[in-house]
Write a structure and sequence with these properties.
By secondary structure, the chain is an alpha+beta fold. About 40% of the residues lie in helices and about 10% in strands. The termini are far apart.
Length: about 160
C-alpha cells in the first residue's frame, strides 16, 4: 500500500500568508505610482493653462482675460474662463481627484494685466484636508512646498499675481 502525501494545513497557511504580504507590498507601490502620475498630470495641466493664458495675451494686445476667480468646481466661473481661452485650449483640465468638498480643484485668477493658477495636492496628503494653499507664501526655501514639509499645492503667476 502506497501512502499519498499532500500538503499539511500549516504549509498551506504559510503559503497564503506569504502571498498576502507580497500582494500588500505590490498594492502599496501601485498607489504611490498612481499618486505620482496624478501629480505629474497636475503639473502638465498647470503649464497648459499657463500657455493658453499667454497665447490669449499675445492675441489681445498683452491683456489677459478679465475673468476674476475661476473655480473648476463652480461651473459658471469655469465656463467663463473656458470661453475666453477656447481659441487656445479646447477644454480646460480638471483635477484628477475632483473632490469639490475638499477643495481638490484648479483655480485660475485673472485680471487684464495678471494671472495666477493654483493647483492642489491630492487627498492622500499626510494631514487633514484643508483649503488650497499658496506655495509662494511659504516661509520655507522651496517654492513648491507649503508649511515647510508637505507639498500641498503649486502655483504659477505673473509678477503682479504673486500677492493674491
Amino acid at each position: 500500500m502506497r501512502k499519498e502525501r499532500g500538503f499539511t494545513l500549516i504549509e498551506l497557511l504559510v503559503v497564503i500568508a506569504i502571498i498576502g504580504v507580497l500582494s500588500s507590498v505590490v498594492l502599496a507601490s501601485l498607489n504611490t505610482a498612481r499618486e505620482r502620475g496624478a501629480n505629474a498630470r497636475r503639473m502638465t495641466d498647470m503649464r497648459q493653462l499657463q500657455t493658453a493664458l499667454e497665447l490669449y495675451a499675445l492675441s489681445n494686445n498683452g491683456n489677459y482675460p478679465n475673468a476674476g476667480w475661476s473655480y473648476a468646481c463652480v461651473p459658471s466661473t469655469w465656463t467663463a474662463i473656458q470661453n475666453a481661452l477656447s481659441p487656445h485650449m479646447s477644454t480646460l483640465p480638471l483635477d484628477p481627484a475632483q473632490a469639490c468638498d475638499l477643495n481638490r480643484q484648479y483655480y485660475v485668477i485673472t485680471t487684464a494685466s495678471d494671472y495666477k493658477i493654483l493647483i492642489h495636492q491630492p487627498p492622500s496628503a499626510n494631514s487633514a484636508p484643508r483649503s488650497i494653499w499658496d506655495p509662494t507664501r511659504d516661509n520655507g526655501s522651496n517654492p513648491t512646498i507649503v508649511d515647510g514639509t508637505v507639498p500641498w499645492g503649486w502655483a504659477v503667476y505673473t509678477p503682479g499675481g504673486v500677492s493674491w
